[in-house]
Structure formats: C-alpha cells, structure tokens
C-alpha cells in the first residue's frame, strides 16, 4: 500500500521525504515529522491568504470611485448579496484560522515540551517540568531561542480573524442641512432637490398609504429608500399641495425625537431655518397652527448600498504573521533535541526503559507532594508512603482548579459588563425586558445601542473601530486556552488512573509494538469536536455582541456626504446574554465533569515529570513499554521469576509454583489455577495479574501478599516495604496500611 507521502507528493520528492522521516526516527526525533507537517499546512494557508489579498486589491482598486489605503470596497449593492459574501468569507477565514492555530499550537507544545535530557538535568536540581499539557511553567526552563519562537507563535495568532470587515452603508438623510425657504415652495423644492414635480409620479417613486409609510420609515437605519414626499389633502393659496421640504431623520434638527414628523402635532410646530441664499427671502417662516391632513406618501426607491470592505493594512499584517509562523515552524523543526516527551505516555515509556535514579524510592509520589515540597523549600528524599483509604474521593477538578477560577473570572467580568450595558439602557429610559432587548436586534445596528467614540469617520476612526470591535475575541481565545488546559489535565489524569485498573497499552506520540497512537493535542475526539463547535459558536456570538458600524448619509440628490458619516461600535444585549449563557454552560459542564471521582487511589502524577518518573521503577523483566502495562504493587516472587530476560514472559513451571503458594496461603479463596491461567493471558502472553473481568476473585487476590522471610517478620511485626510501579509483567492493587518505597 502506498504511503501518505507517495500519494500527496511528486515521485521525485517522495523518496527524499521518506528518507528524512526514517532518519528522524532513527535519531529519536520523530516529533520533527509533526512539526514539518504543520509547517507545510501553514505555508498553504499563507499562500491562500496572499492569493485572496491580491484578488481583493485587484477588484477593489479597479473600481471607478476613489479607494483609500486603509479601507477599500470590494462590493457595493444589495444587502442580501453582501451578507452571503460575508458569510462565505467568514467561513473560509474560520477554516483557515483553525488550521493555522492548530498547527501553531502543536509547534508551541513541541517547543515547551521537555526532552528526556532536560528532565535528567533538572531533577537533580529539585525542579520538575510539565508533560502532556500546554505549560507556561516550562518556558522558564527552556533556552532563549525556543522561548522567542514560542512567543512569536503566540503573538502572531492575534490578528488572524481580522482579514475582512463587512460594512453596511445605509442611505440616510443628511442630519444637519435643511432646505432653503421660499414663498414659492414648488420652485424652492426644485432648486434644492434638482427634481421636477412630475418626477413624483414616475415609477421611481412608490405610492404608500399613511400606515405603510410609517412602517417603512420607522426604522433606525434606512436602506433602499431615498426622498420621502408627504402629500396633504390641503392646498395652498396658489393651489399648490407642496407645503414644506426638509431633511428629518436625526436628533440634531428638531429635538431628540427622530420620528416626530410622523405625529399629528409636529407640522404645526416646526420652523424652517434658512440654509442658503438661493431661495431665502425671509429669515424664517412658520407653518402656522392650521392642521394638515396627510393623504398619502411617495417614497423614492433607490439601489441598496451595502458594502463589503477589506482593510489592506490588516491584510498585510495577517500575511506578515503567517510568514512569521511558517518561519518559526521551520526553525522549530531544526531543533536538535532528541526524545521529546509530548504526552505522559511518552514519559512513562521513557522512564520504564531507563528509570530515573533521582526519584527511586518514592513510588507513591504525587504532583501534590511535589508542589507542597517545593513550597516549603525541602528537598525530595526517599521515604515511606502509606496507601490512603480507597474510599477517598478525588474530584477531577482539583487538578485544574487554578485555570478553572481564571475561566470563572473571565465569565464574571463579562457579566459585570453586561450589567453595565443593561443599566445604561435603563438610564436612557429604554425597556430592559427580554422582548425589548430582542427588539433592539441580534447583531444588527440599533440607534439605541451604539458606542459613538469618534465624531466623524476617517481612516483612523475606521481602523480603531475595527480593532475595538474585535478586542473581545482575544479574551475568548485566552479562555479557550485555559478551558482546553483544564480539560486536557483532567482527561490526562483520568487516563493515568486507568492504568491502575487493568493492563493497557501505552498511548504515545509515535507508537511501536502494542502501543497506541495518542489523540491529537491529547483530547479525545468526543471531547475535542464539541469543544471546537462550542468555541466557534462562542466566537460568533461575541462577534454579534460587539460589531463595527458605519453609516454614510446621502443628501437629497443622492450624493454621499462622507464628512458626516457615523463610525461607531454597535452592541447587542441579547447576543451578549446568549454568549454569556453559552460560556456559563461550558463552565458548568467542566465543573460537572470535575466532580467525578477517580476509580483508584493511584497517586496522581497528572503532568509532573518527577511524579511520573517516581512511578516508573519496574522489576527486572517488567520494563518493556512496548507491551501492555499496569501500575500497582509488584509481587516480589513475580519480580524474581525471570530476572535474566526483559520479555516479561513467565515460565509455566515457576508460575505454577507461585500460584500454588498463593493457594496454600489462602485456602478459603478456592482459587482455580486453571481459571487463573486463562485470565492471566493478555495478548498471547502470561502474567501474574488476572484480567479485571475476574471480579469475584480479583478483589480478594489483590490483597494477598507474597509473604517471605524478607517482607514479613515471623512474629507478625511491621511489614517490610513494598514497591509500586508501572510494569509490563502486571501488578496487584496495593494493600491498605503497607508502607511502599
């Protein structure tokens, strides 16, 4: 069967790549293969980003209108088309970002993961390193070169979601400029609007009844509509039905109500201000107190002007960060370190093959013991450890509680900000019920939910608004990192606990023999997929909670007025509530998982290199990590059965002696030697540990000690020290109350 490289690479490169891979395997640098695959994937993503940027520049700057350097329009037209393009581009960007971030995270973990040589150098100094999890602690003990590469990979991940920005341009009226005034309203209107009265009755203007007129224009931001003509049933002295022409959609003209013109009493109270000298023959004129009955409206239909905009400086920054990532990944692949311990399985395999003498005699050492010892500034010395009661419950959460509290802190800060948002709406006399908040829109601009930080739009304000709108994505990414760390730690400890239940093959980065392949970045698929979906959904909800808004007003002639544009950040309270609900649900989910109890009382090494090495001092012949292994008490007769070999196989005759001795010690157990033979067969080999399916007799047999003159006094005095370890020969459950070293 063809290899993966032969299927995806040209024939001329296949042999060279496979030669390099085999060379890395021979030099115990298998981890470099994963780094190179990540570097190639990141290179492909960078090339795609460059191609997309070139296409965007070609499309944007080929348009007739002037384009700025900071912001350029890719598309202008129907809002539905713009939204479809936006969704497609966002999906593509999320896919590329996920690939880039996954590759970056893998390389960062390789950079911070210790080699066996690093651990052998640090353990004599009473220091330990994390194995199998993303670790900041390890950064203090790695070289400056790897530390710089790690930091560059981290910082270059920040602008990855900022490549394209969608901007909706609403065709609003000019907020401040009012029409000229003249006694001949019809002439004045034509001078101001450059439109004849006959145009009102063309297909360009749609006739609307009064109710539909209100419904159409009673919106915060209007798209697809232009001038509005309100026609009354009254006539003027000169038999004209046009009474007044004006701009009205902003609070700067007539008080703080932008929809006052829809009310019955408005027209009798307005004053027309002179705006120029074309038709102005009076300083002002009043509409008087006479009521005017509105007959109907004529609304000008115009093309929608929704735009898809990209920011060239941000695109260049993204490409630069992509290039920096690729460069750092290839530099990482040139690291000459050997035997990198990416997972706890890698560490167990290494320590079983070559035990660490610095932790010998501390077989019950846990990460908690190491941490407590380092806090009290005491050195680690060989000592006796007693097995605690098996009924003690050790919640999973205790292994990752600091990160859990950090996640909870971020959620609390979000809740505080949401409270400020709702209180500000209440202070503005806005209703704060769920239905009222929903009416403000889900990720859509609302006049009552804008943060106007810039007076008028410009390149600087546009860029600042884009960066501000995307700032919440950074703490969400940090929260994901912490959440992933908690989940990885708990699952790592749960898998470690499983080795004390039954014999299992080690899960390592590059399996050999009976070993199993590790999960990518240590998370099983049933956890990683839901986490990625929840993380993506949370990012999307955050993007709907705070977003970039730009409103460009148009004058009555349909010309844009860019100096009066509004640049702001809009927020959606209902989207914030949904985002917080999802975040709270994720915290509750991991809290519920954390309350589960481990099934055994194995001292949890979690990710601590010293605790893992302390549990890996197998008996002679039991240190083969390529076979299924188990952690527990090493029976002394089992350790002496075949000290001349490392295969871990037990000769039938010696096994019979051991089992008959066990039967003589415990005649009441009615131990079936034939059944024990059957249950001790694992993968065609024999061991002294029964299969866990033998429930009835295993619990009793596990507490039986192979008592000899060396481990028990004849007068029933204190038991001698036992020993616990990972072993390929098998092990039994440690006894309550017996000292182990």
From TrEMBL:
Keywords: Membrane, Transmembrane, Transmembrane helix. Residues 687-741 are annotated as: Disordered. The chain crosses the membrane at residues 31-61, 88-108, 148-170, 308-331, 407-429, 571-592. This is DUF6536 domain-containing protein. It comes from Aspergillus glaucus CBS 516.65. The keyword RNA-binding does not apply. Residues 690-717 have a biased composition (Polar residues). The lineage of its organism: Eukaryota, Fungi, Dikarya, Ascomycota, Pezizomycotina. InterPro entries: DUF6536 (IPR046623). Residues 31-164 form the DUF6536 domain.
